[in-house]
Structures are given as structure tokens and as C-alpha cells.
Design goal:
The structure is a single chain. 56% of the residues lie in helices and 9% in strands. The chain is mostly helical. The strands form two sheets. It has a three-stranded antiparallel sheet. A two-stranded antiparallel sheet has the order 1-2. The N terminus is likely disordered.
């Protein structure tokens, strides 16, 4: 690990690097300090960062080998991800912004959105969700009895504690 001359930043950097290495190792199934490129999004999100797909592709461009192998090496990932965490990049969207977004979609102002409306908005507008992302979200957000998403409850479940 990178050692610097004694200020409080050293401990913080060492702690961040330790977190990154631990997260990386969860996905390093071969125990050879590499992970499948498709796992990087999960690793980044497990560290409390929430990049868009475009930002994730930019991050991948920084850590991929020149000759694309489909694997990311810890030695390339660690300095890039350390900088991301030190700069507090890719922060989660604040609760009030999420609430405002859901309220904008809730045309009748009834506190919920139907499954059909949500699927339409999230697969046809902006940066569309994949089928898998949609299924993951609905498995958590959808009230099976009413087939609706009570968005205030869902937002409460999604909020990340940034301590």
C-alpha cells in the first residue's frame, strides 16, 4: 500500500484501500487478484458509489487492460477506486430529489405508481433499465397485494447511510 509521510490522511487512505481490497476479493473467485469485468458495477456499488452506466463505462476504460481480457486486475482498480472514494464521486441521489422524481411521475398525486406505469417510465425513458434491473427493483418495491409501488416507503428502503 502507498505510504506517505505522517499526516492523518495516511490512515484514511489505508482504510479506504482495505475496504476496496475486501470488496474486490469477494468477487475474485480464482483468488488471483482479478475479477470479471461484469462484476465491477457490483463492487463499486458495494462501496457506496452509484455511477450511471455511462460513468461506469468511463471507470472501466481507466481500469481495463489495453488488450481486453474481460478481467480487471486489482493493481489497476485499486488506485482508480481509491481516488473515486477520496473524491466522494458517484454519490447517491438525495432523498428529496428521489421523492420529487416519483411525485412527478405520480400524476394523480396518490402516493403510489402502478407497476405498469413504472415499467413504462423506467424502460422507455432516459437511461433505460434492463429486464434484470427492472425485476430486481420490482421484487423490492412492488406491493404484491396492490401491484403498486408506494414510493415513500420504497425511498426509505433505498436511502444509503453515509456515515
Amino acid at each position: 500500500m502507498a505510504e506517505k509521510e505522517g499526516n492523518g490522511e495516511d490512515g484514511a487512505v489505508a482504510e479506504i484501500e482495505k475496504k476496496i481490497i475486501e470488496a474486490f476479493e469477494v468477487f475474485d473467485h480464482e483468488c488471483n487478484k482479478t475479477v470479471d469485468v461484469r462484476e465491477i458495477g457490483s463492487i463499486v456499488r458495494s462501496l457506496g458509489c452509484f455511477p450511471t452506466e455511462a460513468e461506469l463505462h468511463e471507470l472501466l476504460a481507466k481500469v481495463e487492460e489495453e488488450e481486453l481480457t474481460g478481467y480487471i486486475h486489482l493493481e489497476k482498480f485499486l488506485p482508480v477506486m481509491t481516488k473515486v472514494l477520496l473524491n466522494r464521486s458517484y454519490r447517491p441521489i438525495p432523498e428529496d430529489v428521489l421523492l420529487h422524481a416519483f411525485e412527478a411521475l405520480d400524476e394523480n398525486k396518490c402516493g403510489y405508481i402502478t407497476k405498469e406505469e413504472l415499467v413504462k417510465y423506467l424502460t422507455e425513458e432516459g437511461e433505460p433499465f434492463t429486464q434484470e434491473e427492472m425485476e430486481d427493483m420490482l421484487s423490492t418495491a412492488l406491493d404484491p397485494e396492490t401491484n403498486t409501488v408506494r414510493y415513500r416507503d420504497y425511498i426509505s428502503m433505498m436511502i444509503v447511510d453515509e456515515t
